[in-house]
Design goal:
By secondary structure, the protein is of the alpha+beta class. It has 17 helices and 19 strands. The chain has a five-stranded mixed β-barrel. Strands 11-10-9-8-12 form a five-stranded antiparallel β-sheet.
């Protein structure tokens, strides 16, 4: 039994180390193993007193070296993993944002050709992306007035009670983080006071509708009315990414979800501002009844189906396994709509006078009820999945794709206005793969999560099976495109075949299929949505599908 355990452990340790280009420290290895299998390294079961003693007994797996007085562990590749080791070795550093956008478009345009013979000679490099919650916080911070760049971090800390977390998401400076959101926030140069941060939509209106061009280094003169308070826009909601936390791995997306206090204190002892009052219907009176604009029997709609063969920018929001994960479409308009929705919901529900009107009585807290929940002072659209106790319910995040247990007291009726935006989460499986041993191993799932982590990817749509989207995922931020199914195959975690086996995980539970209605467009033909990067011609669909993988064999059921 010890020998079998040691063999399994060697394979898991090699998988973790081979994915780390710079190697891991002893502490990092312990942390990653715990994250992968949810228990510590089995040192005592194998007769070892320390992690160092364990790795020194794996001379064919681990190379131990020293860097600045710290022990560094690196993988020794065998015949089956040399190819992946080369991918990691040639991993590129972070690319310039403008260059990356150009490169991504160029690679995406050639993806439909290269998918016929996928190549992946370079491991995917992390491209920093601010999560939607942080983007929405920046938008919220600047919604009332511009802020001096030098004061941003202080203002962020004062407004949200925590530091601006740009380093947490891979950015080396505040300037670099702001460049990643230059489509919505402009940096304007002022002669005496320094650079000023302004929301572009406000700046465009200030200069008579002439929008400032996007880019990382624009410096322009601020219009004369630069200091004037701007009204919070109340247009149709837009939002983007959500807690990556996510159901089974209850880790809130992008580090959100730590602080779960109800934000009612924000509006205490203050009058409701005029711009909040205009959201209340004329016939809404402050009484213990249910407000007339509260959603009670309606459901969200799903996004239109995507056409086979189209390329679409995506962010993977939540992963259970390569056969069960949720994506969110990454288009400029979709991102804006989700961000705006979050900002608007926070703006309205944070006022106690409003929030108390939408408290849900026990009779309304039933499975299938669409409502909203507060997490870390932000509000999210959720659907009640089950009632656990008098105090707790399990909810499904319709825009992010995961289940989470929350307090009943955090729930509120959803205002009718927030039904307009379709549910943004899309249930997905990786196309044409199956686990080599019947079920996905923890190491395979961990590798897949690392490949997806906090970056924009290109998805190549294959087909829908039982309401689940099967697609290929490709990282185009490297010198050559990296196809995730190929990486899993190279690591011997997956067999690549020529068909899509229905996901057993989604067969067991697919909350979107239970609670979300098909869009009107789904009732007709599949649509080529504006979200797509490029669309193959219909005549090429069958050729592309047949040629995607050379030598692919049908999967056995």
């Amino acid at each position: 039994e010890q020998a079998q355990l040691m063999e399994v452990l060697k394979k898991e340790v090699r998988a973790m180390l081979i994915a780390a280009k710079e190697g891991l420290t002893l502490a990092q290895l312990e942390e990653q193993y715990m994250a992968m299998v949810c228990k510590p390294l089995p040192l005592h079961d194998l007769g070892f007193q320390s992690t160092l003693q364990l790795v020194t007994n794996m001379p064919e797996i681990v190379r131990v070296s020293s860097r600045d007085g710290t022990l560094i562990l690196k993988a020794i590749a065998d015949d089956t993993t040399k190819g992946v080791a080369r991918l990691v070795a040639c991993q590129k550093g972070r690319t310039h944002p403008k260059t990356k956008r150009t490169s991504a478009k160029a690679n995406a345009a050639s993806s439909s050709k290269s998918i016929k013979n996928p190549q992946h000679s370079c491991w995917s490099a992390r491209t920093p992306v601010l999560p939607v919650t942080v983007k929405a916080e920046l938008q919220d911070l600047l919604s009332s007035s511009p802020i001096l760049l030098k004061d941003l971090e202080k203002a962020f800390l004062r407004h949200f009670g925590q530091a601006f977390p740009y380093r947490q998401y891979g950015f080396s400076s505040v300037h670099e983080a702001l460049r990643s959101v230059s489509d919505s926030i402009a940096v304007v140069e002022q002669a005496k006071t320094g650079s000023l941060l302004v929301l572009r939509k406000y700046l465009a209106s200030e200069v008579g509708g002439k929008e400032v061009p996007q880019g990382e280094a624009q410096e322009e003169e601020m219009p004369h009315r630069e200091g004037k308070d701007t009204e919070m826009p109340h247009g149709e909601g837009k939002d983007t990414e959500m807690p990556h936390g996510e159901g089974k791995d209850t880790e809130m997306p992008h580090g959100e979800g730590k602080d779960t206090e109800m934000p009612h204190g924000e509006g205490k002892d203050t009058e409701m501002p005029q711009d909040s009052q205009q959201f209340l219907p004329n016939n809404l009176t402050l009484n213990p009844g249910i407000p007339p604009d509260a959603v009670q029997d309606s459901s969200l709609c799903s996004l239109p189906l995507l056409k086979r063969g189209c390329l679409v920018g995506v962010v993977v929001e939540f992963v259970v396994s390569p056969s069960q994960f949720y994506i969110r479409i990454c288009s400029r308009e979709a991102s804006y709509r989700l961000q705006d929705l979050m900002v608007e919901m926070r703006h309205i529900y944070s006022h106690k006078l409003v929030s108390d009107q939408y408290i849900m009585p026990d009779s309304a807290v039933q499975p299938g009820q669409l409502c909203c929940v507060t997490v870390s002072k932000w509000w999210y659209r959720v659907i009640i999945h089950r009632v656990i106790s008098d105090q707790e319910v399990e909810v499904f995040y319709a825009d992010y794709g995961y289940l989470q247990v929350v307090q009943k007291s955090w729930l509120r009726f959803l205002k009718w206005h927030y039904l307009k935006l379709p549910a943004q989460a899309i249930p997905c499986s990786l196309a044409w793969v199956k686990p080599t041993k019947g079920v996905w191993s923890p190491a395979a799932t961990l590798l897949f999560k690392k490949l997806c982590c906090s970056k924009e990817l290109v998805g190549i749509v294959d087909e829908y099976v039982d309401g689940v989207l099967y697609l290929f995922l490709c990282d185009t931020s490297t010198r050559e495109d990296v196809y995730f199914h190929c990486v899993l195959q190279d690591m011997e975690y997956a067999d690549v075949c020529g068909e899509n086996i229905p996901s057993q995980e989604f067969k067991a539970l697919n909350p979107l299929a239970l609670y979300v209605q098909p869009s009107e467009k789904q009732k007709g033909e599949l649509v080529e949505a504006e979200l797509c990067l490029q669309q193959e011609s219909p005549d090429a669909d069958s050729e592309a599908a047949a040629s995607k993988l050379n030598g692919a064999e049908p999967c056995e059921q």
